[in-house]
Amino acid sequence: MKKNNLLLAAFLLLSLSSFAQKIEDLISEKEVARIEKILSSDEMEGRRTFTKGIDKAAAFIADEFKKTGLQTWNNSGSYLQQFAMVRPKFISVTASIDGISVDSRDVIVMTCQPEIKVTEQSGYEKITIGKGANLVTEARKLMTANKNYFVLVDTSHARAMGTLTRMKSNLFKTDKNLVFMLATTDPKTYSIESKHEVTEMPLANVVGVLPGKSKKNEYVIFSGHYDHLGIMGKDRNGNVQTDSIFNGANDDAAGTTAMMVLAQYFKAINNNERTLIFVAFTAEEVGGYGSTYFSRQFNPEQVMAMFNIEMIGSESKWGKNSAFITGYEKTDMGKILQSNLAGTDFTFYPDPYPAQQLFYRSDNATLARLGVPAHTISTTKIDVDPYYHKASDEFNTIDVDNMTRIIRAIALSSRGIVSGKDTPTRVNTSDLR
Predict the structure, then answer these.
(1) Which residues form the Peptidase M28 domain (predicted)?
(2) 7 in any annotated domain
């Protein structure tokens, strides 16, 4: 019996060694450096949202997806997932219920149209948000429902109405409208007229798909955000910059590079039972709009896991061969990843910076709030990072060797989830803010 156990152990060790050799060939330091260097080059002009620089970056990522052999999302024929943000500038609103005028401060209209008029005959679904409900949470649900609503809000929420005003400052383009009104009664008749100056701003995520073999409708997402801060005259401390291009080599060309190299790897080994989705998010730095729009394209129950990769271009506080996972305690995904790394010298740790609230500060947050085991993998010492949001975040600061090791570790650790063997527990949404 002991002899058989020794033979089995030797076989497993040999298999791991062979697999490690294969992954080193498929995920090479040279390829990691090539992609990272292009994304963080001056040619991309810092990849600021709504600039030519970010358009160049999107075109480069899409071309790489094509070379890798990924499919387009929903067979659209384009790797660009295009959408628009609409910024409605308030001009005026008049309102009445049962013939009595309502103070304009008690009415919030969320619309992408310059002018609208809503009455009880407009066909809007009328609902009530009562005392004790979470106004912001309920408003977010309504904003994703793709319906016209007239919403009566209990007056106990008067102070929270200001939050709705901030939420309406950037909307996804839609022909649906939401009207919120503070009210003590359920009116039989009502009339609301609003005027806004509407500015439309086009955006695009870059999405590639590797269909699953036996579990096509179960999705595993690998992501990174490809936008950064662009060209700026001063840093966040107000200091004048000699170098005005904020290249964002670590934030987050590093995560985007990792996602692209992982796409190459999984396409090469071609054994994914679940469908893999590779996405470069836009507009993370200005509000997470890319990931928010992206998350609305899914039934969250079909998303088995999300590997969001952010700032892995430096050693973690534990040194090489290590990284941390935000929200580690919220699912068992971290434990699954570590178990798949048995026999290696790589370790995933829980987030050591809980005060920074990193779980809520990256593109994993939108899907996590829907219950998806969606976590960010990072190494940055966020409390002391000397390059964070500075012009000095350039390619020459990246530890490409260590970054390559991290990408290999993500590939190895995700095997069970990609194959359908492992399924992480869901995030308890009642614990999320």
Answers:
(1) 205-411
(2) no
Residues 20-45: tens digit of each pLDDT: 558 999 999 999 999 999 999 999 99
Backbone φ and ψ for 313, nearest 5 degrees, come out as -85, 5
Residues 257 and 351 in one domain: yes
Q: Which pTM value belongs to this model?
A: 0.89
Q: State the CATH number of the domain containing residue 362.
A: 3.40.630.10
Separation CA 382–CA 312 (nearest Å): 11
Are residues 429 and 366 in contact, defined by beta-carbon separation less than 8 angstroms?
no
Q: How remote is the C-alpha of 381 from its chain's centroid?
A: 21
Domain count, the chain: 2
CA atoms of 388 and 249, how far apart (whole Å):
10
Q: What is the end-to-end Cα distance of the chain in Å, rounded? A: 54
Residues 6+ apart with CB under 8 A from 118: 124, 148, 150, 177, 179, 190, 191, 192, 193
pLDDT at 312 over 50: yes
DSSP string, 138-188: HHHHHHTS-S-EEEEE-GGGGGGHHHHHHHTTSEE--S--EEEEE-SS--S
**Distance, CA of 384 to CA of 387 (rounded, Å):** 9
Q: What are phi and psi of 377, to 5 degrees?
A: -105, 130
Would you say 305 and 372 are in contact if contact means Cβ atoms under 8 Å apart? yes
